[in-house]
Design goal:
By secondary structure, the chain is an alpha/beta fold. The chain has a single domain, classed as Response regulator (Rossmann fold). The chain has 5 helices and 4 strands; from the N terminus they run βαβααβαβα. A 4-stranded parallel β-sheet has the order 2-1-3-4, sandwiched between helices. The relative contact order is 0.21. Bound molecules: 4-nitrophenyl phosphate. The site of 4-nitrophenyl phosphate has 11 residues, from loops.
Amino acid sequence: MKPVTVLFVCLGNICRSPTAHGVFETMVRDEGLTDVITVDSAGTGDWHVGHAPDERTARTARQGGYDLDHLRARQVCVGDFGRFDYILAMDIANLRNLERIAPADFTGKLALFLDYTDQPKRSEVPDPYSGGEEGFAQVLELIEGASGALLLHLKSVIASPQSLSG
Ligand code: 4NP
């Protein structure tokens, strides 16, 4: 079976989406699912293309046991809609930007990442970039919860492929 492909998207691809990339990739690896789920991340903006994750993001992730050192920022592109089954936005502005460039024939799932959790509908992973250290810890906590919920969802999809993207 073709792997299920997941793309996490934020604005800069140096804080929230690389955290989701690293956390979810680690969970997938720990479950022995690297052959069936592939993970990537991107930003809607281009300011940080080629940059490593923000140092505060990398440090917070490292303290939680996640290594983000291999990640480099890139900008999302229209071709991503042909490559990914799930394109998951961190906030509503990211989602709106993705909806604007999504091809009409995209058959995957374009949604907020926190839609996979029991957080209230339309909940966002807040942008920590311009705030204090506590914002980075909050981002990691939200992302760990959402990653666990997404993994449960994908395991059920893999067990019953007709529900892909549901
Ligand atoms: P991210 O955070 O979208 O979670 O990567 C941001 C990083 C950089 C900027 C904005 C948000 N920026 O404006 O440079």
